[in-house]
Write a structure and sequence with these properties.
Helix content is 60%, strand content 4%. The protein is mainly alpha-helical. Among the domains are: 179 residues, no CATH class; 123 residues. The chain has a five-stranded mixed beta sheet, sandwiched between helices. Strand 4 and strand 5 form a beta hairpin. The termini are far apart.
Length: 706
Amino acid sequence: MEPAIEERPSPSEPSPDLVTESGRHAGIAIPERTRPRNVPLFRIAIALLTAVAAAACLVADAAGAHGASAAAGVVVVVVGWGAPWVPRERFRTPGAALIRTVLWGISFATLVAFVLVETRSGALSLVFKVVTAATGVWSVTVLWRAGRRAITRTLERGVSLLRSRIASPAAFLPIASILLSVVAGIVAMPATPGLEGFLTSVNVFWVLAVVLAFGTLSLELARPRHCLPTIAAFVAAFSLAPAIAYVEPRYPYAAKHIGVTTYIATHQFVTPHLDIYQAWPGMFSLVAMLMRGTGFNGILTIARFWLPAIDLLTTLVVALLISRFTSKSSAVTLGAVVFFLADSIGQDYYSPQSAGFFLAFGVVIVLIDLTGTGSRLGRADLVLAVVLSCALAVTHQLSPFLAAAAVLVLTVFRLIKPWWSALIVLVPAAIWAGLNSQYLREYLKPSQFGHVTQNIQTRGAVAHNLKDTWQYVCQYAELAGVLIPCVLFLLVWYQRRDRTSAALALCALSPGILLFLSSYGNESSFRVALFALPWLCAGLARSPQIARRTYQLAMLGVTAVLALTYVGADLGLSAIQVVTPGQVTAERLFESAPPGSVLVQFGPGSGPIQLTERYPLYHFDSFRDFSSVTPEEFVHEVVPYLAETARRNGQIYLVGSRAGSAYSSLDDGTSSATYERYVAAVAGSRNIRTVFRGDGVTLMKYVEDR
């Protein structure tokens, strides 16, 4: 049986696989144009879901249930907004229809919101409701044309399919794993991470969820059925459960993106000179439109659950990419799981780079599928590729160029046609980057060109002087998570040594050009590793040994090791990463101060900043390294600075957080006990008044002598 997202041939649509199992290029058969007499059942299912979600979204908003309206609105945007643009022929292969529906919906909604924000129309809410209502009308029209008998047959087939799947162990295990992951998160909520991060919040339900997820993978490798449940089980255990357990977002640096989103949702326009994010407002505009259209103001909740949602979407897109290079369902599942567990780089939080990664590989897949498709399907995919490229161009500065590099490599190896396919990605990105070139100067400095050793250094390599064993383990676990797929890819490449393997290798190396151009805020190596991983996983999935049980058992062991690296690298340092309610309260209190006020952070990891729409009104500073002076000397030096800053800018606040002293050494090597003495010395000064204390955070205000 077909995997959930892998395209399979129908009688009217031959298989679009690019590469045979021998690795030699296979010709792409052109499907005949079909005019089905009946509406495909999957199209009816999508229409039913869209109609229910659109009605629920509008009714819940009118009733004041804004949370329910937002949840239904997400379904409408992801599924409903894109379904009308997908040709009917595509719905004969559910996997192709589903992924194109999602890509169409997200990219179309992004461009609509972007245009509304850039033109300062002030119509985000109105347009969202109008398009949602129109989507509901389209769904009703599809259902009316299909007829009651077709709708009944669709529902009966869905119920029958659900019963048959639940009765089998291959379906029971992932469902049970997902449910146990949800229970584990609820039981652990609200979790307060200890020195070992999420491991201090682990309970028996989470352990069982992980065991069942690996059981699902084992069954999928032995008897392939569907890759979607297996992927969902791993995402639920390693991403959804922590998101439920922690009541706030897992990464404090998501706060600046939250601030941009609330700014756009409040004002319904952007001010590009404020920061580079408002010059590339695609993702922020989409979320702002959802908030305005549904009346939902819980941006922290959106950021909290963004991580498991984007993890699921990106892993499914990578699985679809892998399916273009192998026809074996078990190999697709294995490659997707390896990608998810190896991606402990921490770039999947609420950010434009996570959205850009999803859109980038979405457009690569569509361009691959353009090779050899029929005229009708080809035109539809070409339009989708253009829309995706435009949405990507206004969402993230870097992702479209990394995607274009991979497309260019595949074009050279004749795995993508025509030759100008890369221009579809490059032209919109180049135009928008040219219009906003003044905001890129900080990231593209001529002094960094060619300095690979300088550009390759990450924030950790630059700042960390760690002494704790656990911190060492977590830092090197991230590196191990990336190196393991590299080794597996090289082993498969040595076995095959064909043109496709060479193309995948060059695609994995293509992001490395960034290291010759810029450090990208000391994050270049993160971007390079992230964009290389899908190609590495596509290559390792082509192993000729995939059908052997001994190889499958060995790969289960490898994924178990990757799971350990994921827990260490992505969840292990939660004590200095997870945002606490106290930090949110302290930041919101500060951002209610008079305009021009200054917030000074003590040490590393002191919590989120720029959390509200008022963030452009304030200034932010920090004291990172104070190990060269005693606490008393530090107070003696800092008070004059605070006095001068207060006279120049207005009120000045200071914040210290438990995140800064979670481990025995800070980023600069200062011990946690010494850090606490600094905070106590500052708080005890006669010029400092404590404004808020709670949940491990202290907000203080400088007061001048009278």
